[in-house]
Automatic annotation (TrEMBL), chain A:
Keyword annotations: Monooxygenase, Oxidoreductase
UniProt-listed Pfam families: Bac_luciferase
Coiled-coil ranges (or none): none
Organism ancestry: Bacteria, Bacillati, Actinomycetota, Actinomycetes, Pseudonocardiales
InterPro entries on file: Bact_Lucif_Oxidored, LLM_FMN-dep_put, Luciferase-like_dom, Luciferase-like_sf
Protein name in the entry: Luciferase-like monooxygenase, FMN-dependent, CE1758 family
Organism: Actinoalloteichus fjordicus
Residue span, Luciferase-like domain: 1-264
From TrEMBL, chain B:
GO terms, molecular function: FMN reductase (NADPH) activity
One Pfam family matching this protein: FMN_red
UniProt-recorded name of the protein: LLM-partnered FMN reductase, CE1759 family
Alphabetically ordered keywords of this record: Flavoprotein, FMN, Oxidoreductase
Assigned EC number: 1.5.1.38
Chain ranges passing through the membrane: none
PANTHER family in the cross-refs: FMN REDUCTASE (NADPH)
Top-level taxon: Bacteria
Broad EC category: oxidoreductase
Amino acid sequence: MQFGIFGVGDIAPDPVTGLPRSEAQRIQDTIRVAKAADDLGLDVFAFGEHHNPPFVASSPPAMLAYLAAETAQIVLSTSITLITTNDPVKIAEDYAFVQHLAGGRMDVMLGRGNTVPVYPWFGQDIRQGVPLALENYNLLHRLWREDVVDWEGDYRTALQGFTSTPRPLDGVAPFVWHGAIRTPEIAEQAAFYGNGYFANHILAPHFHFKPLVDFYRQRFEHYGHGRAEDAIVGLGGQAFIARRSQDAYDRFRPYFESYPMFRGSSLEQFAQNTPLSVGSPQEVIDKTLTFQEGFGDYQRQLWAMDLGSVPVDVALEQVELLATEVVPVLRKEMDARRAAGVPDAPTHASLVHAAYGDGQPRQARPRPNTGDNTSGALPYLDSDPAKPADLPRPS
Amino acid sequence: MSLGETPVHLVTVSAGTSEPSTTRMLADRAAHAVVTRLRESGRNVTTRTIEIAPIAAEVAQSLVSGLPGDTVQTAIEQLADADALIVSTPVYKAGISGLFKSFFDLVDNDLLIARPVLLAATAGSPRHAMVADDHLRPLFAFLRAIPAPTSLFAAPEDWSSGETTARIDRAARELVALVVSGVGRHIAGAGWHGYQHTFGGNATRAQRTAGDIDLDTDLMRLARGER
């Protein structure tokens, strides 16, 4: 079971000063929180993608690459990477590159995004969001697994004899989580490929996402990846912790009440009806255990701890309480309650082992003098000769 | 048919704000007529009234936060269980009450598919007589409900008119005919996959399990890597 934190680099005015942080400050604050999560032994840090104010999260690969160098053990992920408005070729290249920089300490969560104007900024149309996401992932999946790809679809130019570089580290594609909150097609795609499925599990009633998670589990089994209970499920959540319950409510209330997403809501009602946990470490533990009861054994739990205007000192304190008081107990409890045989979330090491056993993993070596992607030869010394490139014939 | 069969669930929604409210009174008179006619046709009936005024703040809060509050959620579930509806709104500024519209804005698009609905409105002047047909009917057309052909309207002078009673009776007969025929159930059942649905929506009765999902669509094939 992996525990960690996720965020989207959002900026909201501080309820006391009325002033938002600068973008520069927000970026540095996020880095401090990520490094603290690494120091404190959390398993995952995930950073989102948005292209409009009040967010600074426009470039997760840049952020992840920097954090790869600045952290020691934590798995770096995204929450999310836009599979709709990013070219899947660029996603394949960027994240394979980061995967090398991070020594495999990286995976990716893919999502559609829901901001209408962002689509045309990148030449796309939100009304095609679902087919775009599905088609783009189909291509991304192949680009990481096949040295030479011929491909034709509806939403980008065709590819012939194309090689995405660099090849994934050790010849093993980054593990993919499909983030979805309403679309059965995305759950179907995650199940078809045997990928992970992540429900953001915030800003919605408790267990609102259970029907989709159940559907994914059922289809995961249908496609022969294992039993339904072995499917790779991740859940979000949001927490604010203090040693005494009432302090948690008192301290969190101004941030909650001033945050645009929660306008007009009562903190008590929101905490009761949604996955938001506010309270003592024990209360956060108890609430999180209900996730396991409701959704079944799952593999990854991420919390939003620094949404909006929570100052960095508070966020750091929250991450420390989470890592020292909450997660150790949850690790023990969830493991004890977990049914026999339910797998952990895949890591780079486990994927390499699954692919090669005790053998040597692949380190792709390009042939000399074929760097133009169109020369017809197989681009790597160890490329599969059974699958030659199908190149356009000169007319 | 006999009184022993599963009762018809009749739900009345009133957006009146006064006490007593003519909007509620019009809805109650319609409900009384509908219950009487249903019993005459051998059907048992249960009735329930949803008043929007007491939950007005929660309706507004649910709209801006995207998260239905407990009372709103209960009201939506009661709508989902209804076999027939009577909806009644006051006219404000030449249109239906914003409160009424806000409440129905919270309802999933497929919650009321092919559900028989009796439309009613009240106003301070007969000049607003077409509001029920001009404003309520399109709203319930969008929701793919089946509004009864006759809608109800009452201005102050209508409360002393025998014509109002006759009109209520006519509208009630229409609603009862739609309910008793089972046409709504037939339409929704036969064509369920043909309507747009929200999987796991906060109110919808269908699309909660894998069995509700059509796996044989172009998008589902695309999800499986096919073109």
